[in-house]
User: Fold 1,4-beta-D-glucan glucohydrolase from Erythrobacter neustonensis.
Amino acid sequence: MSIERKVAQLVQPDIGSITPADVREYRFGTILNGGNSGPYGNDKAPAADWLKLADEFWEASTAPLENGEPVIPAIWATDAVHGHANVPGATVFPHNIGLGATHDPDLIRRIGAATATEIEVTGLDWTFAPTIAVARDSRWGRTYESYSEDPALVTPLGAAMIEGLQGKAGTAGFLGQGKVAATAKHYFGDGGTSQGVDQGDVNGDLDKLMAIHAAPYPAAIGAGVASVMASFNSINGTKMHGNKPLLTDELRGKLGFEGVVVGDWNGHGQVTGCTNSNCAQSLLAGLDVYMVPEDWKALHASLVAQVKDGTIPMARLDEAVLRVLRMKKALGILDGEVKPSARPNGGKWNLLGSPEHRAIAREAVAKSQVILKNAGVLPLKPGARIEVAGTAADNIPQQSGGWSITWQGGGDLTAANFPGATSIWGGIAEAARTAGGTAVLAPTGSAAAASAAKPDIAIVVFGEEPYAEFVGDRKDLAFRDEEGLALLKAYKARGIPTVAVFLSGRPLWVNRELNAADAFVASWLPGSEGAGVADVLFGKTQPTGRLSFAWPKTCEGGATWREGGTLFERGYGLGFAAPRIASVPLDETCAALTNDSGAAWFANGRLASQVQAVADNALLPDLRGNGNGIVAAGIDRRAQEDARRITFGPGAKISFTGPDSGAAFRIAYQVLNRPAGPVTVTAGGKAVDITQGLSVAEGKGWREMVLTQACLGSTGGRLTFASAAPFAFQISEITRDEKAANVECSF
Ligand code: GLC
Assistant:
């Protein structure tokens, strides 16, 4: 193989930035679709498009090559982290935090096998799962991707998932039909960063850190995991993507891993001295495959040059290439295998979201429910008149969480994006009917007032909005959304007993809701088979779920609640037989709630929960999407999609609405090309022409715009940008600042 072809085996671009023609020209060894990438630029693409594109990549990578270069098929990796959930119609299993509550390795093995089959149906070969993080601070936005805070539980569950996905190492079926390559991630320390900050630093005695966060890896390696993904975080200040002692000496030397080490999304670019397109350091540290979503051409060129100039020894290049080839050999794709659609499971659409797979998911949902409180109302009585309230009750995107169809999940997704799925409400309605009772859906709880028959009991479904990665990072554990609390209190005031069903990616401080409800169920993020919740509520399945994370008593989060701040210990969970205990009201004070300033309107790639973005009357959930001449698209500033590009059609405008604190607006922004016509901003008073300010900013990188009443006349709860001509600018933060209320506006 030429150096160019060898290097191409180590470069992994995202499908959003390549075409089959690029694959034909460069012969990449592997490709991926990130959470927001779908075939042909459609992140909601139907299953058939996935298979069609997989065939096109296969054809391109197996086209004959000049001067005897060996033809090596490309393989495609995806984040099937709770089923093949990128794809409409696939079975969406509970996220790992719920699977941890099942404490059931055999169930998880079956989930892995079902997931592998559904991945094969769409023609893909490799999944970036399981996450075997040991999450130790629930403020981390990826807590729900962790099975447990206890490495002794993560270890068997991670190994079981790998075996389900890949088959049992050493057996005939290993990596054969119905099996895909798995990835143990993120090595290591992802769940141990200080303050739970995603991609942050893990600090402490290395041996002690490894005893917690690297503990699940020997079993994963023993299960024959095909790949390990390097973690974004640093260990005592050294980024894992450039950490030779840990990525080579430890992982290869001591743990004996012989498979492929794949980088995370431009993770190499975070290594000191590196950029996304130039980073020999990572290969020299032990990375084999660079996940380089956009800068693949430049990185390919720099790596080739670094091999040729001796920066990268040929032996190191060959070693990495050999690992990729061995993985492909084990997958059987070097032995003249046929294109994806011609493989045994390719295009077998009846297997995608099959009744058998959905039954496994429903079993997992039921086994993951954890009853935290039950003042004698569960199981529900047959024949009961039930009212189901909460906007989360009939909301499949919300019950699925992040990494579902899109990277962040939620947003503009609807049930239509999850064909075959059942909402929590749908399961309750069916169970009530079967038990000879009735159920009505009252999202805002108002139907009860209107309906003649007062319900015997109300089920209030509420919880976190979907998020993924750093977007879900929080500064404390206070659950702030008060929709569920208000509903629980309203029913209580009318003497109607209530059951709270709480959707969350982590334990949170919910003392107020626990006090207000007669029963409280931690439901986690159940996925497409919401009927599994009703199976427990109606007693069809015994509540065997037990917490795999301790539950906080105070709202601050971090280590504080761990030292005596635990409300429920890991392993806690009530059965039905538990004696009815008069629960003592929990303390409802939480300093974080009273200190809320609502300062950040947009930060870390996410709008604050009280803030909306609209293009005239078109809502732009999470500041993404388009409408009325506005397009809001995710872009990377400091991290994946932590900023937005706002594109205006002629005459278009975008408004941000949020808490009216009367404070100044500070906006981190960037202008690549000056406006072609007038741009104005309004905050409730007069429209101010900011064309000159934006023009001066052109090409000067990220800057800060300060908008105060000095130029706006007044600053309230609404900020509107309007452009007469086509224009685009980028935004990474919008914050309010009381102290700057009267300073001059600046750009
Ligand atoms: C993300 C995640 C990683 C995922 C990868 C590809 O940033 O950190 O878990 O596998 O990118 O989507």
